[in-house]
Amino acid sequence: MGSFVSQPLEPVKGVAPPEVASSANPAPVIAPGAPTSPAEAPLFNNCWSCRVLSGSGLIGAGGYVYWAARKPMKLGYPPGPGTIAQMVFGISIACWGVVILSDPKGKAFRAG
């Protein structure tokens, strides 16, 4: 019983370094999940249905945040800095959705 604070700390044991292979050219370390060759592209790089779903969801969420901020303004309340920030945030979310719909990751490049 009790919390971890009331119990004594256990000594931390150091991790031993991995043993070095005896060959002169060790095998290269590949990160898990990384593509093994340049020809092998990521699986979700160009998924149209994923882009449509996420882009339209972000546009809808941005519209909801924007209209929730506009509701008090329609009732006659003056907008404060928080209301303006909420409207800007809602527009930003909607713009992010438009970017996902129009230009997926990996397709855009800087010219020049």
Structural features, described:
It contains two helices and no strands. By secondary structure, the protein is mainly alpha-helical. The chain has a domain at 55-102. The mean pLDDT is 75.
Topology:
Layout: H1 48-74, H2 81-102
Helix pairs in contact: 1-2
Domain Distal membrane-arm assembly complex protein 1-like: 46-92
Organism: Balaenoptera acutorostrata
Transmembrane segments: 83-101
For the structure shown, list the relevant keywords.
elongated, 112 residues, transmembrane, single chain, 2 helices, transmembrane helix, DMAC1-like_dom
Order of SSEs, N→C? HH
Radius of gyration using CA atoms only? 26 Å
- Segments where pLDDT lies below 50 for 5+ residues? none
Helix proportion: 40-55%
Helix/strand class: mainly alpha
Distance between the termini: 65 Å
The overall pLDDT average reads 75
Shape: elongated
Number of DSSP helical runs: 2
Major sheet size, sense and barrel closure:
none
β-sheet strand percentage: under 5%
Q: How many β-strand runs?
A: 0
InterPro entries: DMAC1-like_dom (IPR028036), DMAC_Protein (IPR053117)
Pfam family, one: DMAC1_Dmo2
Protein name: Distal membrane-arm assembly complex protein 1
Keywords: Membrane, Transmembrane, Transmembrane helix
Q: Short summary of the structure?
A:
With 112 residues, the chain is mostly helical.
